Amino acid sequence: MPRNLLIIDDETVLCWVLGRFFSSAGYSVDSATDLTEALERVTHGRYDLVISDLRLSGTQSEEGLLIAERLRAAAPATRMVLMTAFATPELGQRARELGVDLVLSKPQSLPALAEHVSQLLSPAETR
Questions:
Q1: Peptide bond preceding 111: is omega within 30 degrees of 0, i.e. cis?
Q2: pLDDT band for position 94 (50/70/90)?
Q3: How far apart are CA 51 and CA 127, in angstroms?
Q4: Is residue 47 within 8 Å of residue 39, measured between CB atoms?
Q5: 30 Cβ contact partners less than 8 Å away, ≥ 6 residues apart
C-alpha cells in the first residue's frame, strides 16, 4: 500500500518535480500551491507525511507554521517536514512546538530529502 504524501510549495515547478520524484518511488502524491488549498488538503485529506515550504505568499510570510498547526489539529499522527531558505534557531523552536518533525534548509537534494522522508515514515523501532 503506497504512502500518501502532500507537497506544499508556491513554486509550481518544485511541486511537480517532487511529485514526479516521489511518485516514481512508489508514493501517492498530492500537491498544493497556496494556503487555502493547503489548509483544505491537510484538514480533509489523509496523509502519512506533509512537506511544506515556510513561505507561500511573500518574503515575510510564515504560512508553513499555520499549516503545521492545522495539521496537528486534524491529523496528529501525520509527520511533517518544513522546508525553508530562511531557517533560524528561533524558527526551528517554534516549528517543533507546533509539531513539525523536521526543519530542512532549501535547497535539498532529492536523494537527501527522500532519505529524510524514509526515516520519518519508518516504524518507530527502526528510527
A1: no
A2: very high
A3: 19
A4: no
A5: 4, 5, 6, 7, 41, 45, 47
